[in-house]
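Before we proceed, please read the two lines closing this message. Tell me what the token row says about the fold.
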Amino acid sequence: MVTETRFDVLIAGGGMVGASLAVALQPLGLRVGLVERFAFESTDQPGYDDRSVALSWGSGLILRAMGLENALQTGAEPIHSIHVSDRGHFGATRLQAGQAGVDALGYVVESRVLGQALQTALADGAVQLFQPAGVTGLRQQDDHVALDVVREERQQVLEARLLVVADGARSQLRHWLGIDASERDYHQTAIIANVTTDLPHRQAAYERFTPDGPLALLPMTRGRYSLVWTQRREKVDALMALDDQAFLARLQQAFGFRQGPFLRVGQRSTFPLALVKSACEYQGRALLIGNASHALHPVAGQGLNLALRDVAVLADLLASEAAAAAPDCGRSGLLQTYARERRPDHASVVTYTDGLVRLFSSDFPMLGPARAAGLLALDRVAPLRDLLMRQSMGLRFRKARLARGLTLRA
């Protein structure tokens, strides 16, 4: 196979978001390249580890339209209901798929399963893969971006009309582009593990707010739950040092017995939590998507879903550009349109997730009754509940063709 060095679109970062964009662009006939630090099959690939991801109903439509139906059918567990509560206070919000007229509010899939599906979809060679490969520099020109890449100790220069930066929250490329990013440290850490409860999960998800942070249980295949337990940072080391039985006892105390006793816990891992938001979405012919643009708190499971909507809108715009007589995927008008269309969704989700963390992590005594009243209102007032469901399902704003379940063509 001939190795291209000039592309219409070059994607830097082959994790979940970058690989999804590469798959979405395959039918368009564009010259697309993907640069990734790790080989897809490597156990060091952080995007496809043992964690699970929560996909909204809208994200399910996007992935199906990209041809990844099998991953959802065989490797994902549907979410039929969500129970939201505040520990120590009355009131709860219950969301049901039937209330929204859908089969599932979303899905939970292991990162490795989705990563394997993306890898398989990219195996036909329509996208030129540079992995494992490191990026050592970039230069912007009027009509292209030049990316310096090292692969197997050999230096290459790759040129692209559009560079899509998808290298994560600590993006080196964002720094090289001179795009500032604000960061709000939540002083919290998420503990991730798979757990098993005595009672079957029946496709029910739980979001329980505690004084230390939100605790989420997401239904997985084989009767398991994916646990995302947010803790104040100073308490994490002690929790992680507990043996399994002691850890489950502490978890039981925080969650309660709605699912019966916790029986087993798998390998535990942690990651610190912060809100990272770029000052702008693009610079010259380089565009940020996913965590390089907006890294969120995991409360309500919005991060990957917001990024997949980035993918859907960008792919839609590039499909229209690919149909032009002389396509220029990095022209300023296209990038301005992308930034304008994504701005309301970005602002809404950042406000939503950050607001939840601040509201439910506060120790102010009067907020407890107010939170309880709010949960009751969301449960009983249909318009409020419907708005929350549309936000959670990724259906509030303009939907690109992929987000409507439509296959892209140039």
The chain is about 35% helix and 30% strand. The radius of gyration is 21 Å. The longest helix spans residues 332-361.
